Amino acid sequence: MKKQHPLSILGLILFLYCLAAATPLSAQTETGYAVFYADYLEGRKTANGEIFSNHQLTCAHKTHPFGTLLKVTRLDNYKSVTVRVNDRGPYGEGLVVDLTKAAAAQLGMLSEGKAYVQVEVVGSSNTNPIPPSLQTAKSPSAIPTEYSSVSTTKVKDPYLIRELPAGLSGYGLQIGAYTNRANAERQLIALQKQGINRLYIKSLPGGQYKLIVASFPTRDAAMQYLQNLKQQYFVEGFPVNLSKWP
């Protein structure tokens, strides 16, 4: 039997290594269903230790390294979004990626709950992609005049963590509820970074902490602003009568 020369084996190994290195990242694709995160996970830690935010373009994937950038394309309408892996999952049958609401909105899948997608590796990064809503400055005309005093101008450091003043009248928007004040503060700062101002924390007996946008002269004004938050920031909430709080 002819003995294989060591240099031939080494050459084969080098050839296979170079072939693998030359394979473009975009060739790493898979298909399956995308879903998106539930609201109650807001402010919790992801698998890589970051604080989860439904307003960022991030995702969970079972195997790709943290920091991998994935292009997710919905295969029935060909809408796509690029997200960064910072969590693990999803683990249901046929599921390939778990998206934030901001990413799911780009695919138009918030009403369906899941969509059939192609997932393609396009690179890696230490920072999250910028949501389209933040790539250009907001137009002042997007804010109805009756609550134009509630600004969406981006706040500079340091970020303000304020307790809701006592004795306010009118209405506010409750956009979060927490049993841990630190989680409430993290979410307040995350929303300020998105450009949402007039945010307060309302501390209630029993260790409850409400995240409030305030204040509005009428319930209708609060509801109109809530629609603006939903469309631009994917923020959910409901109006509260501030005069009923101590």
Explain this structure to me?
The longest helix is centred in the first third of the chain and has 17 residues. The chain is α+β, with helices and mostly antiparallel strands. The chain contains five helices and ten strands; from the N terminus they run αβββββαβαβαββαβ.
In short:
The protein has 246 residues and is of the alpha+beta class. 23% of the residues lie in helices and 28% in strands.
Search tags:
246 residues; alpha+beta; Barwin-like endoglucanases; 2 domains; 6-stranded mixed β-barrel; 4-stranded antiparallel sheet; 23% helix; 28% strand
Between the first and last Cα atoms, what is the distance in angstroms? 92 Å
Q: Would you report the number of β strands?
A: 10
Our estimate of the beta-strand percent is 25-35%
Measured as a percent range, the helix fraction is 10-25%
| CATH topology (level 3) name of the largest domain | Alpha-Beta Plaits
SS content category: alpha+beta
Counting H and I runs of at least 4 residues, what is the number of helices?
Answer: 5
Q: Spatial order of the strands in the main sheet? A: 1-5-2-4-3-6
Q: Mean of residue pLDDT?
A: 79
Report Rg: 23 Å
The largest pleated sheet is described as: 6 strands, mixed, barrel
Spatial shape: elongated
CATH class of the largest domain: Alpha Beta
Q: For the record, what is the CATH homologous superfamily label of the largest domain?
A: Sporulation related repeat
Low-confidence stretches: 17-27, 135-157
Order of helices and strands: HEEEEEHEHEHEEHE
User: What is the architecture of the largest domain at the second tier of CATH?
Assistant: 2-Layer Sandwich
The total domain count is 2
